[in-house]
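#lab-general

N.A. 3:47 PM
ok so I finally got the sequence cleaned up, no stray characters, all 324 residues accounted for. can someone with queue access submit it? mine expired

B.Y. 3:52 PM
send it over

N.A. 3:53 PM
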Amino acid sequence: MGSDPRATLQSRNMQYRRLGKTDLIVSVIGVGTWQLGGEWGKDFQQSEVDAMFDRARQLGLNLIDTAECYGDHTSEQLVGNAIRRDRDAWVVATKFGHHFHGYLDRTTVYDPDDVRRQLEASLKALQTDYIDLYQFHSGNNEMFQTPGLWEMLLEQVRAGKIHHLGISVSPNDNLVQVDQATQVGAEAIQVVYNRLDRKPEQGLLQSCQRQDLGVLARVPLASGLLSGKYKPGSQFPQGDVRNTHDQKKTQEKLKEVDQIAKTEVPPGVNMAQWALAWCLQHDAVSCVIPGCKDVQQVESNAKAAELARKDHPQIRPVPVRLPR
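B.Y. 4:20 PM
back already:
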């Protein structure tokens, strides 16, 4: 058996885990890329994205999560340009189910023929002939059951355009879709999971473990609230998606973050790194996929891998919450 080309990116300072029942070995810290689509208050130049991925490569990160609707394939295009010289060294995860029309303006489409066209558009944008993990993107349970959808996707797996299928679930306690994952051919679940939102512990993560599904924890920093940069009273500017969130709930969460910082984060430990490592303490989680806006944030995220060691004295293991 030949060696996995992704091993060329591995670093002794990074940790790696198997992504569920797949053959993919992924860095515990990945690169989330919604921000590259222009809805987080910043438009990115290709040179900035290249610099971030060059540094991620050096630090041993090897998983990228993007989507068709982070801009009109904008994020995928930036990613594709950044990794085209060593595409096979990366685990590229993208998604399907939406068409982007403008800032926070999308239509939802899961028709099999349309999804096939979405796949071709993603392959072109990413400058690749295959996608490692192609994920159903936050559709409801009726959309999940769209006639012919999963059959068409499995055809694309057999054709080699997709290597593995996944489900990006919403809401983050959607057991209907997770419990059917193996049945439809999905091998990984993406879910919102962080110290402020522990709903997945109430059955979803356990279902993933029973089925040996890989888990990508998205929004692990709670949209930046767990980064340590924001205090109660902080406001987000126009053009930043966080400005559209329920501001009363945001302030309540910031107060909770303030208490967590005082009572749970060890002295001298970076809060963002602590929050990423906290997610990784759960045995079901394969990888966290925080976003990043510059090289410094890539470096900070990568450092969380050391804290994520199971025996690290400064991170408390996550107590398992049984379903009620």
